[in-house]
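pasting for ref. prot 1 ->
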Amino acid sequence: MTLNWKLEGEAKLMSTLYEKITTKSAKVGVIGLGYVGLPLAVEKAKAGFRVLGFDIQREKVDKINRGENYIGDVVPEDLATLTKNGHLSATDDFSRIGECDVVAICVPTPLDNFKQPDLSYVVNTADTLSSFMHEDMLVVLESTTYPGTTEEVLLPILSKGGLKVGQDFYLAYSPERVDPGNLLYKTKNTPKVVGGCTPQCLKHAKALYEAVLQAPVFAVSSPKEAEMAKILENTFRIVNCALANEMAVVCRKLGINIWEVIEAASTKPFGFMPFYPGPGVGGHCIPIDPFYLTYKARSVDYHTRLIELAGEINDYMPEYVTARLQDLLNDERKPLRGSKVILLGIAYKGDMDDVRESPALKVWDQLEAKGADVTYFDPYCRSVKRKGKAYESCSLDEDMLKKADAVVVTCAHTKGVDYNLVLEASPLILDTKNIISKVTGVDIKSCPKLHLL
């Protein structure tokens, strides 16, 4: 009789949170209100959940509570409406985690100077979370990390208070799939992958995302598969970016137009996907995520040679751009040292203001080390912090361009840049993104001052 009562009690407890999720009466907490966390919080609130965002930066908290948006992928009107009607609010008081039925962890997972994973944000968040956890709570880690983190790092911390996973609380991993600036795929319509520590964990996490997204939710057998899926996605990209960059270097030496080659190869309807060269790779995923696997693979005595080589090739590109510009200036009988160089676009990706891991900043470092006088123009990044100092975007007018010795296009913005003016007024242009000929229609072969990567 006692055993039956216990089983019935556990079944009732397990169904309580599930019912809250499926009826959208659960209160959802989102820890980390950056490029991943804020769009996720907004979509959960739009779906009908009451959402409480957590962040250690008071400025972000205050902006959200005032209905002020600071993330490009969030519609400002949506945020303003959600905060006004009480569906979304934010706090830096982490004791309020106890109010939540569901908690999503969306904190940074950077690499250190030796390309080793820095899980301090995840660990600190877990420590704080463990102090305020309660029974019948779902925790989902969304931060990108190496396979095993959820079960080997997060679970022991969350269990130290005596709660049993799959019985007293539920733990899952579902990797973020944010592509900043993507006009087609946003948080709401991007398919989700989820893996739970137990079948009950998976059941609750899958129900959560199905209640929020207008996209399929793909369940895998454990958090490790979900963690590895994210790594595979971005390893695919880093390797192919490296291939495109290496082909650009080889084609330059052979006197071949790499952009024309890629365009020609892209006509094949199968077996080829176009990737394009550039001054390097940037953002919060491609330069970072694959090296989490490199770190983890060493624990099983395996070296991910392809990932490491791809990283080396991509890391070389800022140096290659600098050498290429130096050669072009040399042809004009000008030294790089003392030359005035304008970097056109400082963001890592076109039509956005994100400078995380931007290769343009690395090109800047290389040029400055060679003695060049570097300024930048970016219609999306009016100011940027670099080496502890703030820099302001210059104006892009005829006088500024004519005074420069060279312009290096390091980001393919399609808005806010007068490429016709750049083409007309600049004495020398190195276009690492092949954007000028696309916008202006100029034939690269008939324009001696315009050069490609």
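and prot 2 ->
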Amino acid sequence: MTISSSLNAGVAGLAANATQLATISDNIANSSTYGYKRAEADFHSMVIDGGSGSYSAGGVRVTTNRLIDESGALVTTSNSTDLAVRGDGFLPVTTESDVGTDNGEEAMYLTTTGSFRTDEDGILKTESGLVLLGWPAEADGTVPEYPRDTADGLEPVQINVNQFAGEPTENISLGMNLPATETEYGGTGDSLTLPIEYLDNLGTSQSLTITFTPSVSATIGDATNTWSMSISDSATPGEVIAAYDLVFADDRDYGGTLESVTHDAATETIDDIDATKTSSYDAATGILRVYVDGGPIDIDIGAQHDSAGMTQLSDSFAPTSISKDGSPVGIMTSVEVDANGYVIANFDIGISRVVYQIPLISMSNPNGLTSLDNQTYQISSESGSFYLWDAGDGATGDIVSYALEESSVDVANELTNLIHTQRAYSSNAKVIQTVDEMLQETTNIKR
């Protein structure tokens, strides 16, 4: 009956507008919630074919969805581990309860922003219990290759604020001048020594002692321009770990620069040098590699005919420039996250080290994700399969630290929709009231 279908349509309209009112209420309530994604209600008409000469109202039905792919504005904060995604992609997180089970199988959830701080165990998490996930780096700061289509390699980001770290010396640049007069006839033949500090693998100070011994000419008015150079290591006292014969040019074009460097293996006295560890000299780069107790160190003495390296001029013995890498042991002072998702620990000795990498997750249909509490989402069949990207690569944006993402809700727009919804609800109620009056008139008809 047509009048009955009108009543059903009015009831359907009330229910549909009540649902829209619920989404508007949720949006307005979360207008200040960081990372909140706006929900909306979509109305769909229902058509019932009543046949020729009659019409039946089908009414309306409503579906709701959350616009997860809409991004809110970013606001700056004072916390380096307040993170927000700028562009597409999601941060991987898990829950505090999953980490507490300690079974190594934390469930992965997604979010676009979070204010993460270390707890008593150094784990980065939010006040609502979301724990940040990332790939752990090796001791040298490199991040291994992890599978990108699974969360198996991810683990809670844990920062040891009392962590100590140091860097061993691996490269030394040696610029110095040897006195040319010492290789002339009548030279003293005295050895010259130069100690150079380096840091071993444990951050302990050690030293290399480089001894230069001139080869004195036996001919009056002549000079050999030749020196023997031996290197000893304080970690293995009494042993010569490397020895070389240095010859300097004396022509007009390259006078005073290195002409040749020959490895003198016979002079070396260290017992445990591996036969494959030859302390040879590379004339193109100017680097000779020596093996101290903790491993190799590359010493740059200057390439052939390079005046910036080791020279033999005049009558003075003087280091002109000595530089080296490595650092003593220091304590961690702060943590930062860069745009590519690398979690960087800063130490009070001035060094920085990568400790984790946070990937960004993408999928074909973000709006198909399952919405959960605390602005988190979960992969579903409708969202499609996911992939873990390096932040800034592929289909993802980058990570912004010292920032949080605001809600995507426009309050002015929601209030406008609220007015429309109220009017529509009142109109549907009026339809029901009218149908009721019409039915009342029908029952009042007397025979």
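The first helix runs from residue 2 to 29.
The CA atoms of residues 243 and 266 lie 8 Å apart.
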